[in-house]
Amino acid sequence: MLSIVVPTYMEADNLPALARRIDDVLSAGGHDYELLIADDHSSDATASVCEALCDKYPLRLVLPADRARDLSLSVLDGISAANGDKILVMDADLSHPPEMIPAMLECLRKKGGALITGSRYVEGGSFDREWSLWRFLNSHTATLIARPLISCSDPMSGFFMFNKTMIEPQNLNPIGYKIGLEIAVRSRFESIVELPIAFKDREIGESKMSLGPQFKYLRHLRRLYLYKFGSVAEFLHFGAVGASGFVIDVFFYYLLQSLGVSHLVSRAVSFWPAVSWNWVLNRMTTFGERVKRPKTRQWFEFTLSSLFGFAINYGAYSLLTTQFVFFDEYRILALLAGVASASLFNFAASTLFVYSEKRNS
């Protein structure tokens, strides 16, 4: 049997048409299925609409337990409640064409170990041409930064099918709304097969996309990069934070000199706003999933460890600018050399000491 999991939040108006179109397609082909509406704390008429639809279709409403609102968790609720051995996940807003379900079923029959996805970006696929430029760029940027995680042209797809035995729910740790990417990365599929779909914009209701879900998506990506690439991903994230701190560092370095402070003193003072910036971002992002320790103490430890790195940094800068004419003329290059020489030490100290998961206080 096919279990169709539809995560919903405030989608009551779309459910009748969705249920009808799914039934038209699957009943005509003699397919045994169940439709699971996995709700995510909706305050609209979702419950009453589902109650009415139950009389006509094999539909069940899956309500969330005591948890925060998150559509990815709604999908996991639906999968847990599913009776079928095949799972299809699709959106409730009619953006995913139910008419593609038989083709996906046939593909899964032939390749049982694969993840079957509906893709907008393979040959024959399409998306709504009425998208604004902002939405178009947002979608393609989100897709681009996810592609290193899986071999798939549309890693953002929320329309996918798989055999239930291919996933281990206890290994999943999603946040946000891109559960398909989570399942693809953390499961043991033999391959990903993409079928072209015509993705249509919703006609009823409003998009749930806002800055909040987009920030969650970035957090989710960080988790998946750490899962797949381990400490390499963490080091690159740490380096990106350091790069932003470098901008702060350079800003104060030149600002102080414009106020008449010597370049050596400016170099010493500009460290402090930069290190504080780095500490905040590392606490929130790079090591954001680790246990949060007292802020003042952690800032002091981060600053102390950074001072050791800064000693290397400052020593290299001073040596280069005082002993080499080239670096005295191009001091920014000396500054870069000092920053690079201290980066590995700072990362090791942050990972093993400042943000260590083994230290709870």
How would you describe this structure to a colleague?
- The chain has 361 residues and is of the alpha/beta class.
- It contains 13 helices and 7 strands.
- The protein has a 7-stranded mixed sheet.
- Strand 2 (33-39), helix 2 (46-53) and strand 3 form a beta-alpha-beta unit.
- Helix 7 (211-229) crosses helix 8 (231-258), helix 8 packs across helix 9 and helix 10 crosses helix 11 (295-323).
- The protein is elongated, with a radius of gyration of 26 Å.
- The two termini are 51 Å apart.
Percentage of residues in DSSP E strands: 5-15%
Number of strands: 7
CATH class of the largest domain: Alpha Beta
- Quaternary state of the chains: single chain
Name of the CATH superfamily of the largest domain: Spore Coat Polysaccharide Biosynthesis Protein SpsA, Chain A
Q: Determine the mean pLDDT.
A: 87
Spatial arrangement of strands, main beta sheet: 3-2-1-4-6-5-7
Distance between the termini: 51 Å
**CATH architecture heading of the largest domain:** Alpha-Beta Complex
Q: What structural class should be given to the helix and strand makeup?
A: alpha/beta
- What would you report as the Rg, rounded to the nearest angstrom? 26 Å
CATH topology of the largest domain: Spore Coat Polysaccharide Biosynthesis Protein SpsA, Chain A
**Stretches with pLDDT under 50, minimum 5 residues:** none
Tell me the number of structural domains. 2
Helix content: 40-55%
Main sheet properties: 7 strands, mixed
Order of helices and strands: EHEHEHEHEHEHEHHHHHHH
Shape descriptor: elongated
Query: Helical segment tally?
Result: 13
